[in-house]
Amino acid sequence: MAFTRTTALALALSALAALTTLSACTQMPQRHAAPGCAEDAQDLPTRALYGQWQARIDGQIEPARVELRRHPEYDGVRGTITRPGKAPALLAGDVDPADGKLTLDESQDGRSISASWIGALQAESCGRKFTGTWHDNTADKDHAFTLERASPNPPK
Prior knowledge:
The protein has 156 residues and is α+β, with helices and mostly antiparallel strands. It has one helix at residues 5-27; strands at 51-57, 64-70, 77-82, 89-95, 102-107, 115-121, 129-136, 141-149.
């Protein structure tokens, strides 16, 4: 087969495009769970959420302590968040089966929702870290949050 100058140029451009795509793909950050770890919260049993967690919310200087346990009425969690120098607030929530996000409602008085949490499991954390948005209903503002397991293993 005889190559014309146009054919050679087309092949060279095609090869360059392929190399550029390959290079871009190898430079993209990979988010994969370690073998045996959940890729997202839908893969976690609810009991994996039980236990002590540490919450860091942008705009709040000190981390808060979160304790989650089995919700008595549905397949979810109930617990408390304790910020330094403040009374504990109540938490209740679950993992949304549609999108795999952890959703928590926070209440200062046990009747009205004062804040909402929506977070995604970080695949590389092996079920130990969520990041997302904490919405302060009283100020109508969103803040980024990180929720990391504080206790070594969830209770059975």
